[in-house]
Write a structure and sequence with these properties.
There is one protein chain. The chain has about 350 residues and is of the alpha+beta class. It has seven helices and 18 strands. The protein has helices at about 50-55, 80-90, 100-115, 190-195, 195-205, 250-260, 315-330; strands spanning about 25-30, 35, 40, 60, 65-70, 75, 125-135, 145-155, 170, 210-215, 220-225, 225-230, 235-240, 265-270, 280-285, 290-300, 305, 340. Strands 1, 2, 3, 4, 5, 6, 7, 8 and 18 form a nine-stranded antiparallel beta sheet that branches. A hairpin with a 2-residue loop joins strand 11 (about 220-225) and strand 12 (about 225-230). Helix 2 packs across helix 3. The two termini are about 30 Å apart. The structure holds pyridoxal-5'-phosphate. Pyridoxal-5'-phosphate binds next to strand 12 and helix 6.
Length: about 350
């Protein structure tokens, strides 16, 4: 791949393709302890051919962003929540967790090392960060690794929606993404490999992505691709699924708080039956990559549920989006503890 420098990038044209920045963070767990991590200048890793990552899918990841403010500061959004979620994912997969404080310090270090790659304020672009943890070293029996690699790669990404938010249409899938006591709560690599086929099937039929139902009864909404679902009722309730097999999103947790405290809605986690989708005036998907993806419609068998409009974004969905993006880019006062400025 041809390498570009930050001054060669047209930030307003940026998409979601990987652009090498040349600097990543890397740390190894060996001989029973985490070795001191550092910034490295390579994008490849040595993985043992007999590693539990390759054979047993013993790996997990995180997704987060760094933003540049109007005052030209660089800031990150609630990184300790990603750090804690990765600890939880690691425990579920019998991996050695990377400590929360070390994770947060590594985020600051990797952002500082890549500060010229954080897109300018106003471009709508940001620096995407992908922390990962994987089981390395030879292990021929079906057993967890004894060596681990923790790393963070970064790449600048454009806004998900160029020219503003617009609604997308989704299809309810027949596939399950997770079992009730399986790995749905963990950001485990294998969950996503298992979902590709559902996503491909939905896209082939012209939908944006697949929506998964709860794996036990197939009557309740669980997740929208790799994002959490929300619906807003005409009487001002913001509802998002409560289930042991969904990923506890940081965007979801933040929007629950903002819906209640900044928009004055009643924000709840509850069961969302697919045959009661008519109750919602607006609906959307939420996650770090797109922040909010408005949902224009959901198709279930031969029934289509339409929310607000198939071409226009609902007013409360738009308000929630503006509130969260405003906080992330420094234009709106954040709730206490949500923002950390990176000392560059
Ligand atoms: C990452 C992810 C989300 C969103 O989590 P955020 O912390 O908000 O980015 C939701 N669902 C799934 C399945 C995910 O992998």
């Amino acid at each position: 791949m041809e390498h570009v420098t930050p001054d060669q990038v047209d930030w307003t044209k940026l998409g979601f393709d990987y652009i090498p920045t040349g600097k990543s963070f890397r740390a190894e767990f060996k001989d029973g302890q985490w070795q001191e991590g550092s910034i490295v200048n390579e994008a490849t890793i040595q993985i043992h051919e007999a590693s539990p990552l390759i054979h047993y899918g013993q790996g997990c990841f995180e997704g987060m962003k760094a933003y540049r403010t109007k005052e030209n500061k660089i800031q990150v959004f609630r990184p300790e929540l990603n750090a804690q979620r990765m600890v939880d994912s690691a425990h579920r997969l019998a991996m050695e967790a990377y400590p929360v404080e070390d994770f947060v310090r590594a985020i600051h270090q990797v952002v500082k090392a890549n500060k010229d790659w954080v897109p300018p304020y106003g471009s709508g672009a940001s620096l995407y960060m992908r922390p990962y943890l994987l089981g390395n070293g030879p292990m021929t029996t079906v057993a967890p690794a004894e060596e681990f690699v923790f790393g963070i790669y970064v790449t600048p990404v454009g806004p998900y929606f160029k020219g503003g938010l617009k609604p997308f249409n989704f299809l309810i899938s027949d596939y399950d993404r997770a079992a009730p006591k399986g790995t749905g709560r963990a950001k485990a690599g294998g969950n996503y490999a298992a979902g590709f086929i559902a996503s491909q099937a939905a896209k082939k039929q012209g939908y944006a992505d697949a929506i998964y139902l709860d794996p036990l009864t197939h009557t309740k909404i669980e997740e929208v691709g790799a994002a959490n679902f929300f619906g807003i009722t005409p009487d001002g309730q913001f509802i998002t699924p409560d289930s042991p097999s969904i990923l506890p999103g940081i965007t979801k947790r933040s929007l629950l708080w903002l819906a209640e405290h900044r928009l004055g809605l009643k924000a709840v986690e509850g069961e969302i039956y697919v045959d009661q989708l008519d109750q919602f005036a607006e609906a959307g998907a939420m996650g770090t990559a797109a922040v909010i993806t408005p949902i224009g419609s959901i198709t279930h068998g031969d029934h289509e549920y339409v929310f607000y409009s198939k071409d226009e974004v609902g007013p409360l969905t738009l308000k929630l989006y503006q509130e969260l993006v405003g906080i992330q880019t420094g234009d709106i006062e954040p709730p206490a503890g949500w923002i950390q400025v990176v000392d560059c």
